[in-house]
Amino acid sequence: TVTLCGTTVSVLYFARSAELAGLRCETLSVPREITSLQLWEEIVKVHPRLAVIRDQVIFAVRQEYVHLGDQLLVLQPGDEVAIIPPISGG
């Protein structure tokens, strides 16, 4: 995929997402303007095992919760994207 206006973001993985991804944080290069769902798909391309938590995951961009869907994100270099799976128990 060629991105004309890409940026690098920090992706943080918590709990089960960290187990599935095999790491707690990394930087990824993604398009600057991207929907939240497309951003999730970019992350799953790198870590296919994350696909199993898609329906339960909470996404946070710059410490604000985002639903996976058509919401357009305009990312800045160094933005933090957190992948927060559901907390078990209850």
TrEMBL record:
Q: Which domain of life is it from?
A: Eukaryota
Q: GO cellular component annotations, sorted alphabetically? A: molybdopterin adenylyltransferase complex; molybdopterin synthase complex
Pathway(s) annotated for this protein in UniProt? Cofactor biosynthesis; molybdopterin biosynthesis
Q: Which GO terms describe its molecular function?
A: molybdopterin synthase activity; nucleotide binding
Q: InterPro entries given for it?
A: Beta-grasp_dom_sf, MOCS2A, MOCS2A_euk, Mopterin_synth/thiamin_S_b, ThiS/MoaD-like
Subunit details for this protein? Heterotetramer; composed of 2 small (MOCS2A) and 2 large (MOCS2B) subunits.
Family, per entry: Belongs to the MoaD family. MOCS2A subfamily.
Something else the entry says is: This protein is produced by a bicistronic gene which also produces the large subunit (MOCS2B).
Q: What is this protein called?
A: Molybdopterin synthase sulfur carrier subunit
Which organism was this protein described from?
Cyanoderma ruficeps (rufous-capped babbler)
This chain is encoded by the gene named MOCS2
